[in-house]
Amino acid sequence: MGSSATEFDIIVIGGGIMGSSTAYQTAKRGHKTLLLEQFDLLHHRGSSHGESRTIRATYPEDYYTDMVLEATKLWREAESEAGYRVYTSTPHLDMGPANEASLRSLIASCRKNSFSFQILDHREVANRFSGRLSIPEDWIAVYTELGGVIKPTKAVSMFQALAFRRGAVLKDNMEVKDIKRDEARGGIVVYTSRGDEFWGRKCVVTAGAWTKKLVHSVTGHELPIQPLETAVHYWRIKEGHEEKYAIGGDFPTFASYGQPYLYGTPSLEFPGLIKIAVHGGSLCDPDKRPWMPGTHTDSLKEWIEGRFLGLLDCSTPASTQSCMYSMTPDEDFVLDFLGGEFGEDVVIGGGFSGHGFKMSPVIGRILADLVLTGSADGVELKHFRIGRFDENPKGNIKEFADQVGFN
């Protein structure tokens, strides 16, 4: 210890989208930053890889809309600085039974936030999407202009490049085994499994599906963050209809509320294929994943048959990929100080529950604010405190059912 190569203002543990965005934020503000990743940079073992993620500002929880709006602005600013695009805008469509509680809460949230939207019945959906999409007569849809698709691996690479350009040090294959306070000089010391030691004035933990394991090994405390493996399916568009669903036109990103909760994107990453998947999966150990979760696609096939008017081949997915969520009991994030002996010197960002990627620029801003100043403007952090689980093991109380399904 004592070398300028091992001492930093801020150490960020975890080089996925949240850690990379945070490192960019701290480095941009002039703080000497170290980003540590346990695997190769841009690896495919966590939650930040792959071909697409959606952006939507429509949420049943009214505290996410402003975060998405700020994130959208920050995505564009980062793209401008990088000189290339990772985010393609589209409209967005939420749909479901007219009496579905989560969809009604979504509409109430839009109204509370003065977020522009249109409610469509089944005829209006058929007219707007001209024979490409259909909903039952007792369903409604919520149409908004703010949707879009993000290229995730490219986005992680962008934030890492921007952080490096601002002076951050990036080190991969650095598995963190322990974090301790430096009782002699203050700050914290981070220890890796290779025997490296790094001193930091403060630290941010964004370890994704490994957050629970790391926090437990460091403090003995069990954070209620449960890894879940999910299957992402791509379906073949029947010949002659490919352009109808291609990104760049008017076809939206979409979500279907109720059971099961489904989501999808226009055709982008694989020509002639469209992504439609169930928002759910199977609990897993991130170090012992099956890598191809045994999901049942019967309900998904039935939904596709009913919505896409026979224009997709739903006999079997054309391609299936594996990814992970980091679930909290209430599906809300953890953005807080670790506390205990670490006080405000270690900040946790985790539990993004399958819907955090779109907000990663603002989450990086919030985590940087917390670690540098002890507070964060523009967000109600009470929804994201660790202590909410002490008050109620289920976390934040909601008037609608969980969105993510468990096999």
UniProtKB/TrEMBL annotation:
SUPFAM superfamilies membership: FAD-linked reductases, C-terminal domain, FAD/NAD(P)-binding domain
Q: Which cofactor does it need?
A: FAD
Q: Which residues form a coiled coil?
A: none
This entry's Enzyme Commission designation comes to 1.5.3.1
Which keywords, in A-to-Z order, does the entry hold?
Answer: FAD, Flavoprotein, Oxidoreductase
Residues covered by the FAD dependent oxidoreductase domain: 9-370
Gene3D superfamilies linked = D-Amino Acid Oxidase, subunit A, domain 2, FAD/NAD(P)-binding domain
Matches recorded under InterPro entries: FAD-dep_OxRdtase, FAD/NAD-bd_sf, MTOX
NCBIfam families per record: PRK11259.1 (NF008425), soxA_mon (TIGR01377)
Could you identify this protein by its name?
sarcosine oxidasee (formaldehyde-forming)
Instruction: List the source organism.
Output: Rhodamnia argentea
**Phylogenetic lineage:** Eukaryota, Viridiplantae, Streptophyta, Embryophyta, Tracheophyta
